[in-house]
Amino acid sequence: MPTLSVSQISSVVGGKLQSDGNGSDSFISSISIDSRTIFDPASSVFFALKSERNDGHRYIPDLVHLGVRFFVVSDYLDEYQSCTNCSFIVVADTLKALQKLAAWHRSQFQIPVVGITGSNGKTIVKEWLFDLLHDRAVLRSPKSYNSQVGVPLSVWNLRPDYELAIFEAGISNSGEMENLFEIIRPTIGILTNIGEAHQENFKSHQEKLEEKLLLFKSCETLIYCKDQPLVHAEISKGIVIPEGKAFGWSFDDEAANLYLRKNEVGAGVEISTEFEGKKYTIEFPFQDAASLENAGHCLAFILTQHLADDAVIEKFHRLQPVAMRLEIKEGVNSCLLINDYYNSDINSLQIALGFLNNHAQHPYLGKTVILSDIQQAGISDEQLYSEVARLLQLNKTSHLIGIGLRIRKYADLFEKSSTFFESTDQFLESVQPDQFRQECILLKGARDFHFERISSVLQKKYHQTVLEIDLNAMIGNLNFFRSLIRPETRVMVMVKAFSYGSGMAEIARILQFHKVDYLAVAVADEGIELRQAGIDLPIVVMNPEEHSFENMIEFRLEPNIYSEDIFDSFRKVLQQHAVVRYPIHLKIDTGMHRLGFDSVEKVEKLVSKLIVQDEMVVRSVFSHLAGADEAVHDEFTSSQIQRFQELSSMITEKLSYQIFRHILNSAGIERFPEFQFEMVRLGIGLYGVSLCGNQQVKSMSRLKTSISQIRKIEAGQTVGYGRKGVAREDSEIAVLPIGYADGYDRRLSNGVGKVFVNGRIASVIGNICMDMCMIDVTGLQVAVGDEVELMGEHILVSDMAETIGTIPYEILTGISQRVKRIYLQE
Ligand SMILES: *Cc1c(COP(=O)(O)O)cnc(C)c1O
């Protein structure tokens, strides 16, 4: 790891150092932008990044508490002066500072550096090159760290031992590539392709292409696929890169710099070519166009860089699909499994340990790491495993299981409690799943170790129908809604009804980390469940019931007081327990005609009672809009808001302390942000549905299953109960293990429901049964075991709802508890 003193960093980034004590001589080795991935608090510097949507300065007090002492900030707050032994580097823009530091670090190295950009395939090409060149000391960006933030963090990992570095660069706006160019300064470029991805902010593909090419300004060689006409035409102009430096390969054009002849063999492809007078043949295990394109880039790179020895050529045959995400699953005996077994190098180990830390909180009792040999050339095994041992120790791992001959050889470096196996097979022979109990288990291994086999032993067995929750998409949605309101406006997130079907503790924990201000549940039991899972945020109970008042007080749950009766009876319970200043929330009915105080008289009476008591303090006053998503109701919505202002001010004016006012739900935030008052209540938008059709709100839950059986039926035969599904022609029918008891609505029967399978849309045939349903897959070439999406990115929940005359809320919350939730996070 690079080490620099705090004052050196300050001068590289052009900051002003505010230091307490002599911290400025201290050396730092890690940089961080995310408090979850800080391992070595004493020698890390935290960059408080600010985006339109989030602000790293918020995390500083927590980090000081954790032992972090060095910060790069753009706002130097008075409170920082009281942080003893801390140094603050004050700059105008913390992201720019991070980029400057990385660019400076890059300038210290003379090795070949590959820059990869393009619309699709960047991460796969990078991972495949890394696998192919596995015997060399190659650094690559971890996961898909390719953004304005990810690239500097990747480049920071450069060390003198590396012979080659591969970084990917992704952009979504014009002007961004110039920054990434300064940081990466690639000597070799790969342009994967130009397609639809991230098109929103560009006028045309041409404009996006021109921007992307800026990465390659200083390259000695630019590899691209000549079969892409737009790309070829632009590069041929020779504007960005002189003609002699562009290297176009092709499957079609024999006159290309490199012509690849392909021949399908079995399930794969044989690719043959000739380069600099030498013939090469590679065997490649996939036939789809995208994989072939990625393989073409890898091959062109390896040939032009003279790295194509027999061992490398042979490895093409063993390339595997790249999974880019960590998977979080329920394990046996109340364990939690974190699967990250597609690569293993020290940088990605560090990231994975960060996730482990973040998840291994109450109720989990221990942290277990199952780790294979690490793929890291360039440093000695002894150094490598000492570093691994140090990371595990910093991370307070309770138990290490090392798998592989190399890690086993260094067993002495690790804690005594560690156990070692020579192979995955040997581990599987001896493992008893019952030896794991209520632990958080990280499975981190190189692909060759096939840790998916361990995962399938340790994972809780459930049927194949699952609801996948994309936590990154959820955070993206949270940040999108935050971007619509002022930074100081509070956010209450509605996590009622199992967070609209997506889960309780997992979701709340992420929201807590991302500093939402309040959670709201429907009933006390939901709030208690959150408290028992260790959630500390304030929680409002929307429908408090009298019998649960004592529980609510015990678990610090704050009631919605919506009538005089509730006020009186809650007050009585507080008095019995001698509780004072208990936070409550007051609901005003402005036209929904559900719960709430609905007249000047009732509010006056309430206020007269409020001012003479001290059992309660009013935290907030709120109301709910009945039709915020529909323009036809705009006049009514305005009248509701006006009424709210009138009635709420009667309360806020009479009480001398601060009371938050709030009326906007998700659609309200999107359509009437000017009425955000001091807080908003976010619900369905967080979970991926914009009732206003806003494209920036991304689907975050995916209901999927896999095909149990396929059969052929003849024209005229029928499918399912009531013989409702009649085959018009000879057909192929696939059976899916999901039915209305799983929440797959029976109104989707008989062609109404659509599913996504093998890249195509298929329809439900016949009536949906309790635990199963059938789809018509005639001509779609599907197989038993193939994955089927019933709801998600391709089958939008809003479309589904519309076809059966309901709303997305009903579909999301209707997915039954027997469908297991799996959480994905990048
Ligand atoms: C559920 C609920 C919300 C959230 O509504 P969305 O339309 O999902 O954003 C807000 N306020 C109250 C009182 C609710 O019950």
Automatic annotation (TrEMBL):
Catalyzes the interconversion of L-alanine and D-alanine. May also act on other amino acids. The active site is at K496, Y721. GO terms for biological process: D-alanine biosynthetic process. Its cofactor is pyridoxal 5'-phosphate. The keyword Ribonucleoprotein does not apply. GO terms for cellular component: cytosol. PANTHER family: ALANINE RACEMASE (PTHR30511), ALANINE RACEMASE, CATABOLIC-RELATED (PTHR30511:SF0). This is Alanine racemase. Its EC number is 5.1.1.1. SUPFAM superfamilies: Alanine racemase C-terminal domain-like, MurD-like peptide ligases, catalytic domain, MurD-like peptide ligases, peptide-binding domain, MurE/MurF N-terminal domain, PLP-binding barrel. It comes from the Bacteria. Belongs to the alanine racemase family. Substrate binds at R594, M770. It comes from Aquipluma nitroreducens. It catalyses: L-alanine = D-alanine. The modification N6-(pyridoxal phosphate)lysine is found at K496. Keywords: Isomerase, Ligase, Pyridoxal phosphate. GO terms for molecular function: acid-amino acid ligase activity; alanine racemase activity; ATP binding; pyridoxal phosphate binding. Pathway: Amino-acid biosynthesis; D-alanine biosynthesis; D-alanine from L-alanine: step 1/1. The keyword Isomerase applies. Coiled coil: none annotated. Residues 699-824 form the Alanine racemase C-terminal domain.
